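Human: For the file, kindly provide a plain-text protein record giving the amino acid sequence and the backbone structure tokens, at your earliest convenience.
Assistant:
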Amino acid sequence: MRDLSGVFKAYDVRGVVGEQLDADLVRRTGAAFARLVGGPTVVVGHDMRDSSPELAAAFADGVTRQGVDVISIGLASTDQLYFASGKLNLPGAMFTASHNPAKYNGIKLCRAGAAPVGLESGLADIRADVEQGVPDAENTTPGSVTERDMLAEYAAYLRDLVDLSGSRPLKVVVDAGNGMGGHTVPTVFADLPIEIVPLYFELDGNFPNHEANPLDPKNLVDLQAKVREVGADAGLAFDGDADRCFVVDERGEPVSPSAVTALVAVRELAKQPGGTIIHNLITSKAVPEIVREHGGNPVRTRVGHSFIKQTMAETGAIFGGEHSAHYYFRDFWRADTGMLAALHVLAALGEQDQPLSELTREYSRYTASGEINSTVADQAGRMAAVKDAFAGRDGVTVDELDGLTVELASGAWFNIRPSNTEPLLRLNVEAPDQESMAALRDEVLAVVRG
């Protein structure tokens, strides 16, 4: 029996094509997924990677052999697949490895209504079925595969949620990174008062220009330069499967995902006063402050989409944001869509006359370090050393909701978490100003790396 623990991750299936992931494994995964959801139909989409069409077809073959039908939506962003799952109220499978290099591929699975499937919500059962051998369906007529293009419906749904009809004309540079943003952006932004300046819209799963991972600052350089060159009002950068969106202002300076979270939260609260807003524990302290100032109820969660979506379901939250530029909307089946967050930012910008840097300043109250990774041999030992170094001080509060979060009397705070997949500790620090942030950052790193 093959051990698939290296391929079946916490939230998805992912691996190197030809080594860890091939058509046979994917076909069996499709069959196991069909058994899990019980039919009658599964919707399947895929990104622009060279291996994606073949793997998506193999998955569909596995599904139909179990007597379950497939609706293929073809090329799609991940949030477009979530839209299809929500709109059609069907379970879905998206073939993508997001921002990973070209040699990777993977499958993001969801139940009907875009409800997430992770290890604790069905993925472990699928893995066990695949490892042990998925039984053939007996006395079952094979399902059929039909094709349905849902891009226009997806675009119309998003535009109905955010009204840009009264916006002043905007010029926006969009870096699709040769990923699925090049497929979705032209349709979503059609007929809006926005001039798009495209960068790398050609679909190419080999990512010839730069990695489709805007979380890494080096992958924003081209976007920043183009924004300044053409005098744009804003810039948007999408990751490979276009479910995350990063924003830069008219100067080419990044707008933190925490500021975007706060801005969108204020807009959602204006529509639904008193609503609950979810934020993970690494977003800026400004997020819960601003939510409260606008009459909302902020709820803090662990990092990770499964925790966000679960908490949104439990609380009826209207919106949720993460430091990694994942944005979740109740109006979008609690799924994450960077495209919808981008439309909110542009609508806020277009309905007033200030530049984006001024508009977002009120949402950016503190100085953050960004995520700093340290390779350590003993994660638990280093975490304990950090706790010992700070826990006994006057005015210090400590919690361990996700890793270790320490808040000082000055208002500065940090969180340090172990990576689940690598021998790393991840540090995030925030403080009222650059000097105190740098001092706290250096003090914590001295303990971690000591």
The longest strand covers residues 104-111. The chain has 14 helices and 22 strands. The CA atoms of residues 14 and 106 lie 4 Å apart. Residues 13-149 form a domain with the Alpha-D-Glucose-1,6-Bisphosphate; Chain A, domain 3 fold (CATH 3.40.120.10).
